[in-house]
Amino acid sequence: MTAITAAPSSDWPEDALRLNAICPYYTMFPLDFPLQQLAASPGTSRVLDPFCGRGTTLYAARLAGLPSVGIDINPVAAAIAQAKLIQVTPGAVVRLARQILDGGMRGEVPEGEFWQWCFEHETLRELVTLREALLEMTTPTAAMLRAVMLGILHGPRNKNLPSYLSNQMPRTYASKPAYAVKFWTKRDMEPARVPALEVIERRAKRLLDAAPLAHSGKVYLGDSVKTLGGLRQKFDLVVTSPPYYGMRTYVADQWLRSWFLGGPPEVPYGTYGQIARQPNQEAFIQALGEVWAAVARCCRQGARLAIRFGALPSARTDPEQMLLASVKASKAGWAVKEVRQAGTPTKRNRQAEQFGKAGSAIDEIDLVAELTGLPR
Ligand SMILES: C[S@@+](CC[C@H](N)C(=O)[O-])C[C@H]1O[C@@H](n2cnc3c(N)ncnc32)[C@H](O)[C@@H]1O
């Protein structure tokens, strides 16, 4: 049994944590949640997150020097999470971007008012060229460039050197086209020319210059239960956070990033495969229970399962009861050791508030369970 070092994030130099912030995602827990769980499980040899989102758990495992596996059904999440496991130099990322752009224009520029207002003409052509080329590439450098692109795709316009390719927009979610066009036209806010390569270069250096050593691991794009069924590895620590009950529009909110990954140039309103699309609470509890059962089958006896969960106030439900019911429904041998408030995180750290539309504060809870019985 090797002891692992999982110091709190405040003990790490700021630049070692930058890669974790490569791209915002609608919900993410603070790095300290998985780091605390790692510190509480000194014998851990492999870490799992079956709802990995942007890969915070995987980054914590990287800091602790451990291999990890993440699963997510959202291509945007999987693409960001993948970057958390990759070791490349900023130079390699920039060289690849330059090589693609030097190869000349390719791909079809999407048409319509939104696109004309969101990106300056030349910037859009570069963006489309990079998108088209990256759709066919699977190397680690390409995966890192893809995640860098997702992070610089949209965000606020700054006074100094630009950090984002788009016209004024939030960075956490993409505005809907009609709203965005109205916003820009009303203010006469024409998009500025932003040379993609320059932004990529600045961002890659910032993120990767001091990134910690990567360890083996993999991110799977798919449904957790189905994917877990095909995994051979055994895990001793699982740190995760399923979608909060009541959240529905997260796929649509990432529509511009979804487009960059090969999706249509419009807002997709489907919620394919998302566990939160269940018709009612009972079905949601049941679906979560199936995940905890599938997780148990991939874990060693004594494994620790740590779950952060919450529900939107509008869902009018008790997240603690829901989560406990789902663990019970799994009938998988998880013995609940602890349930407590997730503390009082700052507004920035609250998953539901990062989502931006949660309204009043919601209760978030942390549940810790241990695999004691034999899984079914
Ligand atoms: C609360 S977020 C996880 C955030 C993560 N802790 C982070 O720090 O980024 C929940 C994730 O579960 C994913 N998800 C929903 N249904 C899923 C399913 N059936 N299989 C795998 N992932 C799923 C969503 O796409 C979302 O990324």
TrEMBL record:
EC number: 2.1.1.113
CDD domains (alphabetical): AdoMet_MTases
Keyword S-adenosyl-L-methionine found: yes
GO molecular function terms attached to this record: DNA binding; N-methyltransferase activity; site-specific DNA-methyltransferase (cytosine-N4-specific) activity
A GO BP annotation: DNA restriction-modification system
Reaction catalysis annotation: a 2'-deoxycytidine in DNA + S-adenosyl-L-methionine = an N(4)-methyl-2'-deoxycytidine in DNA + S-adenosyl-L-homocysteine + H(+)
Domain DNA methylase N-4/N-6 span(s) in chain numbering: 44-82
Entry superkingdom: Bacteria
UniProt cross-references to SUPFAM superfamilies, sorted A to Z: S-adenosyl-L-methionine-dependent methyltransferases
UniProtKB keywords: DNA-binding, Methyltransferase, Restriction system, S-adenosyl-L-methionine, Transferase
Family stated for the protein in its record: Belongs to the N(4)/N(6)-methyltransferase family. N(4) subfamily.
Name of this chain's protein: site-specific DNA-methyltransferase (cytosine-N(4)-specific)
Taxonomic lineage of the native organism: Bacteria, Bacillati, Actinomycetota, Actinomycetes, Pseudonocardiales
